[in-house]
Structure formats: structure tokens, C-alpha cells
Design a protein that fits this description.
By secondary structure, the chain is of the alpha+beta class. It has helices at 5-8, 13-23, 121-139, and strands spanning 29-34, 43-47, 56-65, 71-79, 85-91, 100-103, 113-114. The longest helix is centred in the C-terminal third of the chain and has 19 residues, at 121-139. It is globular and about 40 Å long. 23% of the residues are buried.
């Protein structure tokens, strides 16, 4: 990934573990995996399937946090009968947006929307959770 955080700072595995400890008490998630084989630089948070319509096979957050406080938070819903739905909150150097930006639903298109995020990982994670919670609530309205 050209111009990405991966070139500018190492992954902060201590923060990922702190995130896991912070999120483990949330009823939103079926599973929290820090550094799984398929995503060794990330914390993967799989949502409880009961929160979603039956046509959603799986929904998850994949979070990567860097020692310079750059990050990537990817949200994805895998649908049985249609294309996957995804979005992404990012802080990293790039050629398509400001350093802080959001790639919106349904396909995390680039370029995204310029944004501004806190330097504190708890604030970022809380914001993402609120936005995903809003999406989940909309399924049942």
C-alpha cells in the first residue's frame, strides 16, 4: 500500500491488546481475535449474528493501530444474497484525501470523505461503535 501508515510506523500491538480488553465486555461481539493468522496486524471483532437480519452471514470490525496513532478501522457485512457492504475510518498519509478520512458505505469507495478524529484510540473506537450501532438499529426500524 503506497503512502500508507504501514510504511511510516509499526503496528502498536499494546494498543490492540488494550482495545481487546476494552471491547471484551461488550455484548456486541461473538468473538475478539487479536492478531489472528489471517490478519496478524489487527484486532478482529466479529459481531453477534443475532444483531443482524438473517441474510447477513457475518459482520466484523478489523482494526489496525500504529505507534504514530495512524489507524485503519474496516467494517464489513457479508450478505448471503448480495454484495458485501463495507466502510472504513482511516488516518494515514495518502493521495486521495486528508490524513483523517472516511470511506463510506456501501463499498468504501475511494476517494472518501475528509474527516477529523481524536488522537485517543478510545474516542475513535467509541465513535465507530456508535456509527455501527446506528446502522444496526436501522435494520430493525
Amino acid at each position: 500500500m503506497t503512502g500508507s501508515s504501514r510504511e511510516s510506523a509499526p503496528v502498536d500491538f499494546d494498543v490492540l491488546e488494550d482495545m481487546r480488553k476494552y471491547l471484551v465486555t461488550s455484548a456486541r461481539f461473538e468473538e475478539l481475535e487479536c492478531r489472528p493468522d489471517y490478519a496478524p496486524d489487527s484486532l478482529v471483532c466479529t459481531y453477534d449474528a443475532g444483531l443482524y437480519p438473517v441474510s447477513v452471514d457475518e459482520a466484523y470490525l478489523q482494526i489496525t493501530w500504529f505507534k504514530n496513532d495512524d489507524f485503519n478501522v474496516h467494517y464489513q457485512e457479508n450478505w448471503a444474497d448480495s454484495d458485501d457492504t463495507k466502510c472504513r475510518w482511516d488516518r494515514h498519509p495518502n493521495d486521495h484525501n486528508t490524513r483523517d478520512h472516511y470511506h463510506p458505505l456501501p463499498d468504501a469507495a475511494t476517494p472518501g470523505q475528509d474527516d477529523s478524529y481524536s488522537r485517543n484510540w478510545k474516542d475513535v473506537v467509541s465513535r465507530v461503535l456508535r456509527e455501527v450501532d446506528g446502522r444496526i438499529e436501522a435494520f430493525w426500524e
